[in-house]
């Protein structure tokens, strides 16, 4: 077991999908998928949920996570960032006499995240000597070919870029938005989730799904069925 903490950020009050973080997804609360992934990784000395909701706290504890304290009012509003939440958690643990070498922030709606992925990512970061790791997914098409609409007319974002062959374009990636692994010292010193020495952990798009709207939720259900079907096949 490493001296690492998993912090699952699960604020209450979701408006687009009511009670999203604890809504049932294929037989169990969505939050439990994040907790289970952290448990199965076998690398965390503490797995906690940062929340402002008593209901979420009860679900978290039932799933095997710790909720040693509730999130403050300051980090519970719509303007608080993930950095603010993690900084508060680290400070509260320090006040209680507990410090960790590594922080892993895991978002609550990640039904495709596995313990093996977290374990592999942690191992890659440790072996690299870098300060942080972010899961990244490759854009399916070259972003250089992006278009925009101006006054109802389709306009290339960059006309010259449209002439570039796809094989000549360097791949670009976007944040998968599932987890962040950061060395605590770098996090506190550089005051960011993405310190200067941040590496990428490449994920396949079938493992990545934002769940912010009702349509996103339905898409996640379809992907989950397909993924589990292929595993069982």
Description of the molecule:
The chain is α/β, with parallel strands linked by helices and 233 residues long. The chain has a single domain (4-138, 172-232), classed as Spore Coat Polysaccharide Biosynthesis Protein SpsA, Chain A (Alpha-Beta Complex), CATH 3.90.550. The protein has six helices and eleven strands. Strands 1, 4, 5, 6, 9, 10 and 11 form a seven-stranded mixed β-sheet that branches. Helix 1 (30-41) packs across helix 4. The mean pLDDT is 95.
Give a concise summary.
With 233 residues, this protein is α/β, with parallel strands linked by helices. The chain has helices at residues 30-41, 54-62, 82-95, 115-128, 184-190, 214-232, and strands spanning 4-9, 24-25, 28-29, 46-50, 102-106, 132-138, 147-150, 153-156, 173-175, 179-183, 198-203. The strands form three sheets. Strands 1, 4, 5, 6, 9, 10 and 11 form a seven-stranded mixed β-sheet that branches. Strands 2-3 form a two-stranded antiparallel sheet. It has a two-stranded antiparallel ribbon with strand order 7-8.
């Amino acid at each position: 077991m490493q001296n690492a903490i998993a912090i699952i950020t699960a604020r209450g009050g979701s408006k687009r999908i009511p009670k999203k973080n604890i809504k049932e997804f294929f037989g169990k609360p969505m939050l439990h998928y994040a907790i289970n992934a952290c448990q199965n990784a076998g690398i965390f000395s503490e797995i906690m949920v940062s929340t402002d909701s008593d209901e979420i706290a009860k679900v978290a504890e039932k799933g095997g996570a710790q909720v040693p304290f509730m999130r403050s009012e300051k980090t519970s509003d719509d303007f608080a960032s993930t950095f603010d939440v993690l900084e508060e958690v680290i400070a509260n643990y320090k006040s209680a006499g507990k410090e960790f070498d590594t922080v892993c922030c895991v978002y609550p709606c990640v039904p495709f995240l596995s313990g093996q992925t977290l374990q592999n990512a942690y191992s890659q970061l440790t072996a690299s000597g870098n300060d942080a790791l972010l899961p990244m997914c490759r854009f399916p098409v070259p972003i250089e070919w992006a278009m925009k609409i101006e006054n109802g007319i389709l306009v290339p974002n960059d006309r010259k870029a449209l002439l570039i062959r796809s094989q000549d374009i360097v791949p670009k990636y976007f944040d998968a938005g599932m987890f962040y692994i950061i060395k605590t010292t770098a996090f506190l010193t550089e005051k960011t989730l993405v310190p200067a020495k941040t590496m990428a952990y490449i994920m396949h798009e079938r493992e990545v799904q934002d769940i912010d709207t009702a349509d996103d939720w339905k898409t996640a259900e379809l992907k989950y069925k397909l993924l589990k079907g292929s595993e069982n096949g």
